[in-house]
Amino acid sequence: MNKPLCKTCGKVFQRTSNSQKYCSTKCRNKQYLPRITEWHRQKRRELASTPAKNKLQCIICGGWYRQVSNHIYYAHKMTAREFRKKYGFDIKRGHLPEDLRELKSKYVFENGTVENLKVGAKYRYKKGQVGVGVYERSEETLERLAWIRKLAYKKKSNT
């Protein structure tokens, strides 16, 4: 009786069932992994090409993603901070769709992470402190600060 040969590496192996064609899962995966990987890539391309209101668009490649920073890290090999700095976004503020931002905010209160903010209050910037908070601000941050100042000025003039 002929001994079975692995379809991938050609080694003789001991069958545990008549339908077994590979000596190990490693050899089986070598056979199917490229097709599976390509299928996953194609699926991700299809999802990324579909705009939706709960997705953000990557300004580098134009794809639509739920969390752009993850995509930027893996696809464009740059950190979210580098991306924000290069393209003029607020450096300390993440980019998330509104519904995901609300969901994450809800989780922060449910799991108690918000307590970390209270503990860290003693380390925050205090007015008049030298050398703290001095960094180059993005265009987005400057626009937001100007808008906040206008609001504060209007409130003062109305009172």
Count the DSSP helices. 6
Please state the structural category. Answer: mainly alpha
- How many individual β-strands? 2
Assigned CATH superfamily of the domain at 48-118: ROS/MUCR transcriptional regulator protein
- Which percent bin holds the helix content? 40-55%
What strand order characterises the main sheet? 1-2
Strand portion:
under 5%
Could you tell me the CATH topology label of the domain at 48-118. Answer: Arc Repressor Mutant, subunit A
- Which whole number gives the mean pLDDT? 84
CATH architecture of the domain at 48-118: Orthogonal Bundle
Q: What are the segments in which pLDDT stays under 50 over at least 5 consecutive residues? A: none
CATH top level class name of the domain at 48-118 = Mainly Alpha
Query: What separation lies between the terminal Cα atoms?
Result: 98 Å
The major beta sheet can be summarized as: 2 strands, antiparallel
User: What's the assembly state of these chains?
Assistant: single chain
Global geometry = elongated
Backbone CA Rg: 27 Å
Note the run of SSEs as H and E. HEEHHHHH
Walk me through this protein's architecture.
With 159 residues, the chain is an all-alpha fold. 49% of the residues lie in helices and 3% in strands. Among the domains are: 1-39, no CATH class; 48-118, ROS/MUCR transcriptional regulator protein (Arc Repressor Mutant, subunit A), CATH 1.10.10.1550. A two-stranded antiparallel sheet has the order 1-2.
Jot down its keywords.
single chain; 159 residues; mainly alpha; Arc Repressor Mutant, subunit A; two-stranded antiparallel sheet; 3% strand; elongated
